Amino acid sequence: MKSETDVVERERALTGRLRVAVVRLTRRLRAQTPDDAVTLTQLSAMASLRKSGTASPGELAAQEGVRPPSMTRVIAALEDKGLVTRHAHPTDRRQAIVELTEAGHARIEDEVHARERWLDLRLAELDDEERAVLSRAAEIIDRMSGS
Amino acid sequence: MKSETDVVERERALTGRLRVAVVRLTRRLRAQTPDDAVTLTQLSAMASLRKSGTASPGELAAQEGVRPPSMTRVIAALEDKGLVTRHAHPTDRRQAIVELTEAGHARIEDEVHARERWLDLRLAELDDEERAVLSRAAEIIDRMSGS
DNA sequence: TATTGTTATACTCTATAACTATA
DNA sequence: TATAGTTATAGAGTATAACAATA
């Protein structure tokens, strides 16, 4: 007999199961970093920039949910690789304007696909219903994370 | 008109959306670390130990999906805090046997709940159907991550 | 004074390579 | 020789505190 207690127990454990699941999946994703590629964090910032066109370092930090000093380092790394540039803000000289270079635009699609090959393979092993569950879960998690 | 292309497009983007979602949620979870608490990684190892009772460092590393040197450090940190102990293996002196101390058992429930307060609050804001989606997603992600 | 961003510093998490002890 | 584990070292990711430049 499927009791109410089973449901309650399963619900109670959701926090812990979700925590373990996302931490482990993130470990696997970070491990899929080819030697010459940008890191997962750098890639995420590039994707954010592609979406917004241009952004100040502070805006990027807010979009990614990290502190400004963390974003400073990410931008510096991407600048070293020639994937983003900075321009002066027209009226506020405290701010910088960051945007993807041509090289950055050219690289991002390839990087995303290369990086996600492992995850693509895993997702391909699922059935349609399972993929639909993950699709909805991604929406819900994004909302919870305040992005 | 809801075309087939929309569905295909949404499916194609699942990899990227899922990656972003789990990376950001993991960031938030790691940020919820009180000063005197064990870290998220240490907590995960403790939960693994609670489940298996005892385990060798190598078994723990495999359960958590990390390399042995990484687990060595996690165990050392927990030993320093008095939350786990090591015993000699009865027949193979290369191996160690790790288990939770009384203090470890006493602490783990509190730590888990303290750590997951933020996530609990977020989950409480969802409706039943959304929680059910996340519950299924956690199962699927665990399976994909090979745990 | 307040805001934007950077620099300095430190800690967690993880890995690979090289080593020790035991099988 | 092979296996279990540790030590040494390094790099990614992130934070807080202190600072500089500009508003």
UniProtKB/TrEMBL annotation, chains A, B:
SMART domains: HTH_MARR (SM00347). InterPro entries: HTH-type_Bedaq_tolerance (IPR052526), HTH_MarR-typ (IPR000835), Tscrpt_reg_MarR-type_CS (IPR023187), WH-like_DNA-bd_sf (IPR036388), WH_DNA-bd_sf (IPR036390). The keyword DNA repair does not apply. It holds the Pfam family MarR. Coiled coil: none annotated. Residues 11-143 form the HTH marR-type domain. Keywords: DNA-binding, Transcription, Transcription regulation. GO terms for molecular function: DNA binding; DNA-binding transcription factor activity. It comes from the Bacteria. PANTHER family: CONSERVED PROTEIN, HTH-TYPE TRANSCRIPTIONAL REGULATOR RV0880. This is MarR family transcriptional regulator.
